[in-house]
Amino acid sequence: MSEAILEISGLEACYGSSQVLFGLDLQIRAGEVVTLLGRNGMGKSTTLRCLTGWMAPSQGRIRFAGQDVTGWSADRIARLGLAIVPEGRQIFPNLSVREHLQAFAGNRSGASQPWDVERVFELFPRLRERASNMGNQLSGGEQQMLAIGRALVTNPKLMILDEATEGLAPLIREEIWRCLDRLREAGQTILVVDKYVRRLIRLADRHSILERGRVVWAGDSAALDADHGLWQRYLGV
C-alpha cells in the first residue's frame, strides 16, 4: 500500500459556540481518488476549510505530505503541494486563460513530467482556442476547465475538487468527468466533493459519508454501489 499523503484525525471545528465537526477521521493514500459525501450542511465545506488553512480546527490533527499542518496558513499549505478547485471557480475576470495558467505554474511535487500550460491545453483543447480570452469572457464550463487547469499547473501532491460539476450542462459535465478519469489513470491524488454518486462510484477508490459533522460510513466503491439504502439515508439520492 502507498503512503498516506493526508491524515486527518479527531478533527473538530466550531463557528462561535456552534460545533460543526465532531472527531472526523479521513486518510488518503498517494494515487487514490477519495470522495467526501453528504447532504448540504453536514460539514463538508468546513472540513475543506480546515484542510486548506482557511479555518483553524478546535481539536484534532491534520498531516499532509508528511508534516503536521494543523493551524498552518492557507498559503503555506498550498506551497507544500495542495491545490483546490473551489466551488464557484473564482476565476479572475481581468486575466486571460493563458495568464491564469502562467501565473500559477510551478512544480511543487517535483514531477518528472510536470503539468504546464501546453499540457493543460492538450487536456482541454477548448482552452487553447480561448487562450487570449479574459476570464469573464468564458462560459461556465470553460471557467471550470480553467479552474482545474490552474490547479494542475501547480503540480499538486493533492488536488481537491469542490462541486466541480455543479451547474454545468450534461455534456460539459461529462467532459469534466472524463478529465478526472484521465487524472486518476495518471496517478494524481484527488479528494472530490460532489453529489453525482453514480459517477463518483466509477471514478473513486473510497468514499466517506458525513452526517452532522461525523463520518457515519466509509468504504470502497463496490460497497457503496451495493447498498443503495445508504444513498437514501444520507445522500437523498
From the spread of the alpha carbons, the general shape counts as globular
- Average pLDDT, rounded to a whole number, is 94
| Proportion in β-strands | 25-35%
CATH fold title of the domain at 1-81 and 190-237: Rossmann fold
Look at the helices and sheets and give the structural class: alpha/beta
Radius of gyration: 17 Å
State the share of residues found in helices, binned by percent. Answer: 25-40%
Instruction: Tell me about the largest β-sheet.
Output: 6 strands, mixed
Name the CATH class of the domain at 1-81 and 190-237. Alpha Beta
Q: List unreliable stretches of 5+ residues.
A: none
CATH architecture of the domain at 1-81 and 190-237: 3-Layer(aba) Sandwich
Termini gap: 32 Å
CATH superfamily of the domain at 1-81 and 190-237: P-loop containing nucleotide triphosphate hydrolases
Order of helices and strands: EEEHEEHEHHHHEHEHEEHH
State the helix count: 10
DSSP summary, beta strand count: 10
Strand order of the largest sheet: 6-7-8-3-9-10
Please sum up the structure shown.
By secondary structure, this protein is of the alpha/beta class. 36% of the residues lie in helices and 27% in strands. The chain is globular and about 45 Å long.
Question: What are the SSEs and their pairings?
Answer:
Blueprint: E1 4-15, E2 18-29, E3 33-37, H1 44-52, E4 59-64, E5 67-68, H2 74-79, E6 82-85, H3 97-104, H4 117-123, H5 125-129, H6 140-152, E7 158-162, H7 170-185, E8 190-193, H8 197-203, E9 206-211, E10 214-220, H9 221-226, H10 228-235
Parallel strand pairs: 3-8, 3-9, 6-7, 7-8
Antiparallel strand pairs: 1-2, 1-4, 4-5, 9-10
Helix pairs in contact: 3-6
